[in-house]
């Protein structure tokens, strides 16, 4: 009986903690947090793209390329667009941004370029998993072009 009560109390506590944790996760990000997270996401993709480039130029490690390509695809698919909310169009204290105002005025074009990256990054992950370095090289070029297309249009120098 006592044990049963304790288990019940633990269940209630776990439920309460779950609600609290859920509440924290669901809390909207502040503008400076959104900016930090999106820059981290882009930087993380860049690191993984560099790893793939290094492999294409030097000794080719199948496993490293496959993991890096999967990471780029995951970040690209993660919905970075959600991190460009109101108030994230300008520097906020220490957190600087290079996003152009046009990014917020042309959502359809942004979406098109973001979806283009998703498509190329997912294909890069797919070919990287097969271990075909030639196919990875070609698809790496298409993926980099998709990054560049958005930067040319929506990122300041
Ligand atoms: C749909 C548009 C878009 C696509 C696609 C895109 N980027 Fe960007 N990227 C941006 C914007 C906008 C910024 C500026 C973010 C800011 O400063 O707030 C940025 C910033 C960056 C930065 C600088 C991050 C920092 O710390 O300031 C890097 C690095 C980067 N992108 C790499 C990439 C790579 C690599 C890819 C492709 C795998 C890519 N981006 C695809 C729009 C895009």
What does this molecule look like?
It is built from six helices and no strands. The longest helix is centred in the N-terminal third of the chain and has 27 residues, at 31-57. It has one domain (32-84, 95-154): Cytochrome c/b562 (Four Helix Bundle (Hemerythrin (Met), subunit A)). It is an all-alpha fold. The structure holds heme C. Heme C (HEC) is lined by residues 35, 38-39, 42-43, 45-46, 49, 72, 97-99, 103, 110, 113-114, 117, 143, 146-147, 150-151, 154-155.
Based on secondary structure, the structural category is: mainly alpha
Q: What's the number of extended β-strand segments?
A: 0
Please mark out the parts with pLDDT under 50 across 5 or more consecutive residues, or reply none: none
Major sheet description = none
What is the CATH topology descriptor? Four Helix Bundle (Hemerythrin (Met), subunit A)
Rounded radius of gyration (Å): 21 Å
What binds here, in terms of ligands, is: heme C
CATH class: Mainly Alpha
Q: Distance between termini?
A: 69 Å
Q: Counting H and I runs of at least 4 residues, what is the number of helices?
A: 6
How many distinct folded domains?
Answer: 1
User: N-to-C SSE series?
Assistant: HHHHHH
What's the name of the CATH homologous superfamily?
Cytochrome c/b562
Helix content: over 70%
- The average pLDDT is 90
CATH architecture heading: Up-down Bundle
Shape: globular
């Amino acid at each position: 009986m006592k044990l049963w009560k304790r288990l019940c109390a633990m269940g209630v506590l776990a439920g309460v903690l779950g609600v609290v944790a859920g509440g924290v996760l669901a809390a909207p990000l502040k503008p400076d947090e959104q900016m930090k997270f999106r820059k981290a996401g882009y930087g993380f993709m860049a690191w993984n793209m560099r790893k793939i480039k290094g492999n294409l130029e030097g000794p080719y490690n199948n496993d490293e390329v496959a993991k890096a390509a999967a990471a780029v695809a995951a970040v690209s698919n993660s919905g970075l667009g959600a991190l460009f909310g109101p108030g994230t169009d300008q520097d906020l204290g220490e957190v600087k941004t290079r996003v152009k105002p046009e990014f917020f005025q042309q959502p359809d074009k942004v979406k098109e370029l973001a979806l283009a990256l998703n498509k190329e990054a997912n294909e890069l992950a797919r070919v990287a998993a097969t271990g075909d370095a030639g196919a990875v090289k070609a698809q790496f070029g298409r993926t980099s072009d998709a990054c560049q297309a958005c930067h040319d249009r929506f990122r300041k120098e």
